[in-house]
Structure formats: C-alpha cells, structure tokens
Amino acid sequence: MHIAVVGNIGAGKTTLTELLARHLKYDPQFEAVENNPYLEDFYSDMKRWAFNLQIFFLNSRFRHIVELQNRKIDMIQDRTIYEDAYIFAENLFDMGLMSARDFENYSNIFQSIVHYIQPPDLLIYLRASVPTLVNNIQKRGRDYESGIRLDYLSKLNEKYEKWIGNYKEGKLLILDKDNLDFAQNPEDLGMVIQKIEAELFGLF
Fold first, then answer.
1. Over the stretch 137-170, which tens digit does the pLDDT of each residue have?
2. Which Gene3D superfamilies does the UniProt entry name for this protein (predicted)?
3. Residue 45 bears catalytic tag
C-alpha cells in the first residue's frame, strides 16, 4: 500500500506523514537527502542553473520511488515526483527562470519516466491558505524559509489547485488544513484516519 501526502510549503506534510506512519504501522518516506551539486550555483544564478537543478531532483526522486516500489512495502511518502514537474519546474518556467526550450525538454523527460512508476494508492492533498502556510512556516522557524515571499506561496497554491483539479491517477483525498489541527488535536487526527480508511478499505 502506497499513500502520498502532498501540499505547499508549510502545509503539514511531514507532520501528517509521521503521525499516519505511527498509527498505520507504515514506513514513512521523506525526500531523499542527497548533496545536490547544483543548489549553490542555482541560488547564485537561478536562470542559468534552474534546468540542471530540476533534472537532478527529478532523477533523484525517480530512483528513490522505483527502489521503494520494488521493495513492495506499505509506505507513506512525503511529497511526490509529480510535484517536481507540475508545481516547481512549471513555476520556474512561469517566473522566467527556465527557458521554454529547457522546460519542454524537462517535461518530455518527465513524461518518459513517469510511466515506469506506479501512482500512489491514495493521494492526500493538504489544502491550506497562504495565512495558514505563513503561520506554520513561522512556527517551525527554519532560517532558509524566512525569506519566502507571499506571492510565491500564492503562486504555488495555484499550481497545486490546477494539478489536483486534473488529477486522475488514482484515489484522492483533499483535507482542509485551515480547519484541521491534527498535530495538536487528537479528534482531528482521528477524523483524518477515518477518512483515509474509508477511501482505502471502504470502511465508514
């Protein structure tokens, strides 16, 4: 069984992944931590290195998910390969940081490799407004997130809504994070677990 949790920066993906893994006794899977040789270059010259950076991320995540699916484990995944293409690469293109030629090349590579992986049995989308995202980002206090602009978060939200609105790969559960606090409220977590089990196993 493969559950994936998706959503904008600060939506609560990691928290929900950890809580569900504990409850369902599934393996939690987080983004593969590897030294990205393009990251420093990207931040010094985004337009020059955007394509290289995204290709590295795409390859890294593809290899990780293939390896996990070959192991045939019950897992909960924090973020997916789909977000690399439909959210972050597309946003770099929209911002003028990736050329049309590079974006087309990237998209073609993505379409070629995505057929070699199975979509999750259930995709959970944490929908959150920008004020909720900002509140969560401030609470966790990561230095490198302190400069994230509101319009950037808003733009990513638009990308998520467009992708989720067209998602046809499998079962989808949308959770309204503005009105849920599964980290602090056990009742909210219980309701989320109930909805997940209903989607996966038809339990009501």
1. 888 776 766 677 788 899 999 999 999 999 999 9
2. P-loop containing nucleotide triphosphate hydrolases (3.40.50.300)
3. no
